[in-house]
Each structure stands twice: as structure tokens, then as C-alpha cells.
Specification:
The protein contains seven helices and 16 strands. By secondary structure, the protein is an alpha/beta fold. Helix 3 (157-168) links the parallel strand 9 (148-151) and strand 10. The longest helix has 14 residues, at 127-140. Bound molecules: NADP nicotinamide-adenine-dinucleotide phosphate (NAP). Residues 41, 43, 128-129, 132, 153, 155-159, 177-178, 181, 196, 213-214, 218, 235-236, 252-253, 294-295 line the site of NADP nicotinamide-adenine-dinucleotide phosphate.
């Protein structure tokens, strides 16, 4: 099968290659999925799990990609809940060969059913950005209706989901980003927008929750706006020199079937709009990843 592979950590993302690899087998509790579309996060080459297994041993050549939409083609011993031919969507293990391939083996618990009326490209755009937003707002951030939330990078893949879900839940949403992102962030549900390059974040007053996808000084300045008892939820920490008493949750998104099904259902009934940027195919994927053009939204690779 064809797959996008990295072989050399020193080369990082520049070392990606389209290669022939052996089709995977389904282990206990796995299914094999014929991947129709895969999402991609451009920082993957920086993640330790791209290069090593859980015991820190070199696992290259490694197949990239962790988000998939596709069809089940094989079922491992003891696996329940899915059938051959079923459409699925999911978030693959960080430490296993991934989804930028014609087939991938994945634990069934990492998957949710994908309804027939949700396109594979749309499905593949959802797992990381949707689950990250859901877990940050509702699990780690314990969002309450009526609270004020900063959604950093609100025109980006994660931030656009944060803005929409927080607004649906009854929060007041302050989106941030670059000047050019204002309208997109407002369209994704932000009540107001702060252009971080030209406007003062400090002018927005106090907030209950900060959802940070930018980090550094932006994260630190946002933390100072938190009300007593407020939370900084981050996927980009850790931070130095945060204000005293600030509750900080720096987390890595996890697969969760029930949450992913909630997200898919919202996309299906129009409550949630996915934010797809570049769409490419396996042959052109590496050129897409290496493009110097500014990305807008989630990159999706159509495999079939
Ligand atoms: N820990 C986890 O589980 C987890 C999960 C998902 C994502 N992440 C991480 O979260 C980050 C965001 O992911 P994403 O997929 O949402 O990326 P994305 O689609 O590129 O969105 C980020 C948005 O923030 C904007 N932005 C970044 N720095 C900015 C700044 N200094 N001022 C104003 N706007 C700025 C970006 O604009 P530009 O494109 O112009 O910079 C972009 O619109 C990535 O680093 C990713 O690796 C972590």
C-alpha cells in the first residue's frame, strides 16, 4: 500500500516520503480501516511519539497521520462493535503507524461510526480539532453557560471548534487571531474579536476560561485576565511565570467515541461547521504539507 513515511528525525518534516509499505494486520481489539481521508496537523514532526514507541525506542520508518475517515476491512480477535464495510471516523494512537496510508490498524475503541450522510473529507477533519475543543471546554475547563471565554486562534482548526461549541453552550466568546481572521472568527461564533497584532487583549476585561492554542506571551497575558477560580486550558504549554492561583490544564487530546459521536452529530445537523483548509491527495500530500502559503483551517488528504 502507499503511505507517507518519515525515516529521519534530524530531517523532520522535510524527510517525508511517499513509499510502499506492507498492509497492516488487525491485532487483538483492532480493526483495519481502508482510509478514505486523513486529517493532518503540521506540527506532527515535532511530537516525540512520531519518532519513538512508548519505551522511547526508535520506531522509524513511521507512517504519519492520526485522523481518519474510512471503511472497516478486517476485524481483530476479540474486537466488538464494528462490522466489515462499516463507515468509521477516529483518532489513531500517537505511537502507532498512522492514517496517511491506504490502510491502517487501529484499536476499535478509538473509532466512532460515521453516518452515511457525512462525507469522508468532513469526517477526517473532525477528530483532533473537535475532540480537543470538546475536552478543553467541557472536561478540563468545566465550562458553564454565561461564562466569558477567550478562544485563541478562533479562525484555526481547533479555535473555530472552540468558538462554536462554547457559543452553543451559552458562553460569551472572545475570539483572537491575526487581523485577516476577524470575519472568519465572527462567522465561527465569536461575539467579538481581538486582533493580537494590533489590538490590546487587556481591553476585554476579565474572563472565566482561556483556551490557548498559541502559547508563550499570549498565553501568559491571557492568564492575567482570569477571574479568581478561572482556568487556563492549553494544548500548547507548559508556561513559565504564570500568575499565582491560576488553574492551568495543559493536556493532550484523547480518543473518545461518545464525544466524537456528539461532534459528528452536530456537524450532521448543522450546529457545528467544520473548518477545512487544503484538500489534497496522497501523491500531492507532501507538497501540500510543505507549502509556504498561509494555512486556513484543517488540512485533509483524500486517500481514495
Ligand atoms: N495537545 C493537543 O492535544 C493538541 C491538539 C490539537 C492541536 N494542538 C496544537 O495546537 C496548535 C493549534 O492547532 P490548530 O490545528 O488549531 O492550528 P491552526 O489551524 O494553525 O490554528 C492556529 C490559529 O492561531 C493563529 N495564531 C497562531 N499564533 C498567533 C499569534 N501569535 N497571533 C495571532 N494568531 C496566531 C494561527 O494563525 P497563523 O496560521 O497565521 O499562525 C491560526 O489561525 C498547534 O500547535 C497544534 O500542534 C495540540
Amino acid at each position: 500500500m502507499k503511505a507517507i513515511v518519515v525515516t529521519d528525525q534530524a530531517a523532520g518534516a522535510a524527510g517525508m516520503k511517499l513509499m510502499e509499505r506492507t498492509e497492516p494486520q488487525a491485532a487483538i481489539n483492532d480493526v483495519v480501516v481502508q482510509v478514505h481521508a486523513s486529517g493532518f496537523v503540521n506540527t506532527e514532526a515535532e511530537w516525540p511519539s512520531t519518532w519513538t514507541d512508548r519505551l522511547d525506542r526508535d520506531r522509524t520508518p513511521a507512517i504519519l497521520g492520526h485522523e481518519l475517515a474510512g471503511v472497516v476491512t478486517a476485524i481483530g480477535y476479540g474486537t466488538t462493535g464494528f462490522s466489515i464495510g462499516q463507515r468509521v471516523v477516529g483518532l489513531a494512537d500517537w505511537y502507532r503507524d498512522g492514517t496517511l496510508a491506504e490502510y491502517t490498524a487501529i484499536e476499535a475503541r478509538n473509532l466512532a461510526p460515521l453516518p452515511n450522510d457525512v462525507d469522508f473529507t468532513v469526517g477526517a477533519s473532525l477528530p483532533i480539532s473537535g475532540l480537543t475543543a470538546w475536552q478543553g471546554l467541557f472536561v478540563h475547563g468545566r465550562l458553564q453557560a454565561g461564562q466569558r471565554v477567550i478562544a485563541h486562534g478562533a479562525a484555526g482548526a481547533v479555535g473555530s471548534m472552540v468558538a462554536q461549541l462554547a457559543r452553543e453552550f451559552g458562553a460569551y466568546v472572545i475570539g483572537t487571531g491575526r487581523a485577516a481572521d476577524r470575519q472568519a472568527a465572527l462567522d465561527f461564533g465569536a461575539h467579538e474579536f481581538v486582533d493580537l497584532g494590533n489590538e490590546s487583549l487587556e481591553d476585554i476585561g476579565s474572563v472565566d476560561l482561556v483556551f490557548d492554542v498559541i502559547g508563550g506571551d499570549v498565553g501568559k497575558r491571557s492568564a492575567r485576565l482570569l477571574r479568581s477560580g478561572g482556568t487556563l486550558v492549553s494544548v500548547i504549554g507548559p508556561y513559565e511565570d504564570l500568575p499565582d492561583g491560576c488553574r492551568v490544564i495543559d493536556f493532550v487530546v484523547e480518543a473518545d467515541r461518545a464525544q466524537l459521536s456528539e461532534i459528528v452529530e452536530r456537524v450532521r445537523d448543522g450546529r457545528l461547521r467544520t473548518n477545512i483548509g487544503d484538500v489534497s491527495n496522497l501523491d500531492n500530500a507532501i507538497a501540500t504539507f510543505n507549502s509556504t502559503e498561509r494555512r486556513k483551517g484543517k488540512t485533509v488528504i483524500r486517500i481514495r
